Each structure stands twice: as structure tokens, then as C-alpha cells.
Amino acid sequence: MKLFQFLLLFFGVLLLHAQSKDALIEKANSQIHNEPDKAIESFKKLLSTEKDSKKKIKYYLLMSSAYISKRDLDQSFKAMKSAQELSNEIDDNKTKASVLINVAIQYQQMELYSNSFENLENAEKLSVKLSDTAMAKYSMLGIIYTVRGTIYRIQSSPELALQKFQTGIDYFNKLKKSYSTEANLSIIYYNIGYCYLEMKNYAKAEISFDKSLQLARDNKATSLEAFAYKALGELYFYDKDYKKSLVYLDKAEEKANNIGDIILDQGIYLLKSNNYLALRETDLYRNYYKKYQNIVAKKQQNEFGIISKSIDDVRETNQLALDEVLKSYKILNLIVVVVSLLIIGFVSFFLYKQLKLNRSLSSEINEKFSHRKLS
């Protein structure tokens, strides 16, 4: 039920690349979902020669989405942080709002929903300031309400989620038909289908999943097609129509073969194994359940790698901080020593002068006393 969540990160840079004219950028945009490695290389190439801060922010955010497509959350977060740092240097509401949306989606992925809502609210405040004729305004507001709807769906509030999704659809319908708009509408209807599935309204769930599938097909968005087929397979599994469920899951598996999305594969294999178990086809059940277990093991290995790298990064950061403290401590010690030596020197000089004066006075007194004694 949580497999859909990663798709939200496809929203984050819609407003930035929807109007692009450059052939390389357009090609890289189309590769984000299906060939993320190629997209990442293209964006790195663009970044290496770009001087304009706004364009660099755009490339970092697009690269962040490409990393999410291949499930590399660590690199996605780094690219997003680079964009956020650059956004602090410019005064542009559209760009700042886009970055805030990406930050919100990252927090949503981390299940830090209050942080996500906070960034979405700040993004909305900036978005509404844009001109009503600016298409980016409706793109961003559509994204904002869709992310909110997704969080409510995760929190098992499908009725409230449906309201947010409908608002998102209304905003996207204000835009001209394009690959980005249609792909994002496909994702919205996918989520709406799961709302109805949770409410056990299978008829409306099927309509929504079919709508998602059609939009994905029209735009040749292979990964979105695979998810829509997987969703329909899940719907018919719950409806206990196991053979029909397998028909859709076979199509999902075929589409997923060239994507390399382990979360998508995990969902398909688990559903197929459950279907075969229900049909008492034990050999096929074992085969797909083993595939499912292998994916889980691979996912855990990837997560451990990310966690290990994060720990190393924290350790390195802490070591740098400790080195700074020690450096400051050494400087402080040096200052203390120098000041102490100066004080000691001053006191010694003062004592020496005082001692010399005392000796002079003592000698003078003794001399006077001797003269009196002689007279």
C-alpha cells in the first residue's frame, strides 16, 4: 500500500522543466522515469558549464528526481540540498517555492509529516504571490495539494485526501496538455484509486486506476504504466478474482523489467506469490515468493549502505567539529600563555622596580642614620 509514495517526487520539478526548449534538457526530462542514470549524466554535464544560479537550481532538482527514480535517497537529498543552498542567494518566489516543495516531499519520504506540511505551507504562500497568468503558479499549487492529499491517504484519512486530490486536479486542468501535466494527473488518479480501495469502493477504484493507466499509456510513461497495472492487479486480488489479478500483474512485470525499480518489483512479486498461493499453484508461489525475499534482502542491503554512509558522514562532521574545537582550544591556550607571560612580566617588572626603589630608600635611610650617629 505504500509503494506509490516515491512517485510524488516526480512532482517536485514540474514547474521548472515544463517550459524548457533545450533539446538536451527535454531528452533528460523524458529519461528521469525510465533511464535515470542517463538523465543524471546529462544534468551533471549541464551543471559543469552552467553559471546562472536559477538554471543550476533547476538541474539540481531534476537530478534529485532522477536519483529518487533509482531509489538513491542519499544522493537525491544531496542534490536537493545543493539547490536549497543556491536558492538562498536569489530573490525569486517561483524558484524558492519549487525548492520548498522538494524539501517537503523529502520530508514526506522520511515520514516527517509535520515538517512536510510546514514547507508546503511556506511554498503555498510564495506560490499565490505569482501572477494569475503564470502557469508555474497552477503547477505548484497542484503539486502542493497533491502532496497534502498523499500524506492524508498515508495517515488513513481517504475522505480528506480525496478533497486535496480534487483540488490538485482542478489546478492541473488549468494548464495546457503536456507530458508533465498528464503524467502528474496519472499519479493523482493512481492515488485516488487507493483511497477508494481503502474505502472498499472497488468500482470507483477501478475507474481511477484505469484513468491512471490511460494517461500513462498516452504519454508512454512506462514506469507509471507498470504501477497502474500493479494497482489493478492488487484491486482484483482483494476482490478474490485471482486469475484476472495475474493478467494485470503479468503486464506490470513485463513493463517493470526495463525499469529496475526494486520497490515496484517487490510489490509485483508479493502480489503474484499471494495469487498463486490462493490458486494452490505451489511451485509458482515458491518461485515468486523467493523473488520477493531476494528483493527484500537487496533493499535492506541498500538501506544499510545508506545508513552506514550517513553514519560515516556524521562521524566525519563530528570529527571536523572536534578538530575545530581542539584548534580553538589550542589557540585559546596560546592566548592564555601569552597573556600570562605578559602579566608575569609586568608584575615581575613592577616588583623589580619596587624592590629597587625599596633598596634605594633603605640605603638612603641607612646613610642618613650613620651620619647622625657620627655627629
TrEMBL record:
Keyword Cell membrane: no
Entry annotated with the keyword Ribosomal protein: no
Keyword list, A-Z: Membrane, Repeat, Signal, TPR repeat, Transmembrane, Transmembrane helix
Family annotation (Gene3D superfamilies): Tetratricopeptide repeat domain
SUPFAM superfamilies noted in UniProt: TPR-like (SSF48452)
UniProt TPR repeat ranges: 186-219
Organism lineage string: Bacteria, Pseudomonadati, Bacteroidota, Flavobacteriia, Flavobacteriales
Annotated protein name in UniProt: Tetratricopeptide repeat-containing protein
Superkingdom of source: Bacteria
Transmembrane segments: 331-352
Pfam families (alphabetical): TPR_12, TPR_8
Segment forming the signal sequence: 1-18
